Each structure stands twice: as structure tokens, then as C-alpha cells.
From TrEMBL:
Family statement: Belongs to the PRP38 family.
Main location: nucleus
Record's keyword annotation contains Transit peptide: no
Function, as annotated: Required for pre-mRNA splicing.
Protein name: Pre-mRNA-splicing factor 38
Residue ranges of the region described as Disordered: 70-89
Keyword Cytoplasm recorded: no
Localization per Swiss-Prot or TrEMBL: Nucleus
Keyword annotations from UniProtKB, A to Z: mRNA processing, mRNA splicing, Nucleus, Spliceosome
Superkingdom, natural source: Eukaryota
Amino acid sequence: MADEGQTALVQQNATKILQNGSRSRERSEIIEIEVAPEMTVTPSNLHPAKKPNAKCKFCQRASKVCKAAAAPKKGKEEARSEAAPSDTSTSMWLILQEADDEEDYSRRTFNCSPILKDQILGSSYFKSMLQLTTIDEIIEEIKNYADTLDVYNSGSSTSPSNFVCQVYRIFTLPEAEDLSQLQVILENPTPIVRCAGFVYLRFVVPAAKLFEKFEEYLFDEMELKYQDAGRTVTTTIGDYVEGLLGKEKYFNRPLPRVPVKVKQQLERELAPISQYRKRMEAHMKHNIKKIAGTPVEVFHDGQWVPGTAQDFTGKHVKGRKVRVELDNGQEVNVHMGKVPRRMLSSVEEEVDSSRCMLIGQTHRESKAARHGSSED
């Protein structure tokens, strides 16, 4: 009887061991299934209230699964960090890498507050503008009915001005998908029409592309007059554009947010702009006609670099920008304000001497003509 009792006890113990083993395998399989998709170390079901046990074989197995799943992600991050340049002079390159390589404004967004957008769409004036379907019609509308550059009418914070409604109507035109179609607005002889184009760009163009789009107009000396809080403000298009780039608010209304990196780059570009304008004015005063082949030094990527001037260029006013071939073979278009006047002294002297020679020759010819007539 004793032998039979011992045999039964051994069989019971064996059955418990087998059952515990199967449960353990089930627990380990659950750990593997749950951990792999989550990419995180999940505590073992054997002790869920504690941290993973380094000596536990199930915790070790779960940890290995997580490490294997996270390994490819780490490799991608290292490759990205190795590809990015470390030089601080390439900060704008890094900023532009964050923007799309190709500008696609077919899915453009007018980055104003939802409240302002609802107020514009609910405005009776904006609804009346829906019958205007071409850019030329919008231009005439701005000339005739834009009485302020403010976002709201005077004394109101709920009634959008005609000006901002006209800007939003430009946004809704199919032609606005191609920014080149808006040059007729940006280069219009009427200052307030040009301002509508600039405000449109500020609310639509990505932050990383703002300076590229506005740089051409920072040196524009066209006079601009507008009303602000009942007083007449007189400024220039260049100053107006600088305010759109450098300030966070427009008539005390928030402009689209600019990321910190882009803002820092804009501040560096705008800091010496007054000096560039004075230099530009001096160049325009001397009216240099020929510049090809002139050795120059230009401010590029935060430093002065030597190069050779090729020709004048520029979209708005020909002569404001010059195409320069740097000594390293790179070609850049820079404003004349970034070219020191001393570098063009030889060109100015040549122009002055040519003028003197022409004046002297004309004087001699007229004198000879008078002498011949007196002999007759």
C-alpha cells in the first residue's frame, strides 16, 4: 500500500510540473507577441508589479525582442545625423531641407486664424467679390475700394476690411497656384496693390521660403502712404516688406508663426539691411551701365568672398542685382547693396572718363563748326 501511495504522489507531482511548464510557455509566448509590436520592454507576466528581472529568462527574452526591433530605427537616426552638415554657416541649407524641394501651391493654405477666416467668408463685401474672376479685375477692385492696409475696419475687431477681403479673394483664384502669375500685382505701379500681393505671400508661402520671395523688394524705394489709427503714415515698400518679415504682428494681429531657426536666419539677414540700402542708393546714383568682368567682393553665406561680376539681373528693377561668379566657380545673384562701392571705383572712373572725353569731343566739334561758319 505504501508503494502504491508513493507512486500516486509522484504521478501527481509530475502532472503539476507539466502543467506549470505549459503555462510558462504560454506566458513567454504572450510576452513575445505583446512586446514586438510595441517596441518597448514589457514586464514579465510572472511579476507584473515589478521591474523586469535581469535574471528572469522570460524578461531576458522580451528584452532581446525589443532591442532587435529598435536596432534599424537607431541606424536611420545615425545616418540622418551623419548626412547633415555641422557647419553653422549652412543653417539656411538645413532650413530649406525641411521645406519641400518643389513648391506646390495647389494645396496652399491661408494661415490666418479660423475666426478671421469665418469673418471674411461671412462678409457681404467678400461675397460681392465672387463675381470677380480674373487678377486684372481684382487689381481694379483694390485700386478703387481698398481704403486701409489694416486687417479690420477702423474701430472694429469683427468687421474685416476691404483690403483683407481682397487679399483672401486673390487666395481663392485658380491663378494663385502659380506665383509667377502674381507678378502683375507685385510689380504694379499702385503701392496698395503691391501691398496686397505681399500680404498674400506672407500668409501663404512657407516660412523657409519667405526671404527668397521677399528679398527682391527689400530695397524698393517706392513711396507708400496709408492710414493707421487716424494718422497718415509715409514709408517705402522696402520698409513695409521688412516689417512683414521681421515682425510677429501686422496691425496688432498675429502673422503666421515662423520657426525659431528661420526667425534667427531672418534676423541675421535683416540686421545690416539699412547699410545695404545706403550702398544700393550710392550705386544707383552713379548709374553704372557696364559691370561685366569687374573683380568684386560680395557678402555671401555670412562672409565676404571674391568673385567676378558677369551682368546685371533682377526681376523687379534691372540693375538692383548682379550675377557674380565666385572664385570657387559658383554663380550667385546678389544685390548691389552687398557689393562694396570701392570694388566698383574703377568702373565709375572709366564711366566718368568716357563722359569727359565725349563732352570734350562734342565741344571741339561745335567750336570747329562755329569757326567754319565765321570764315564763310
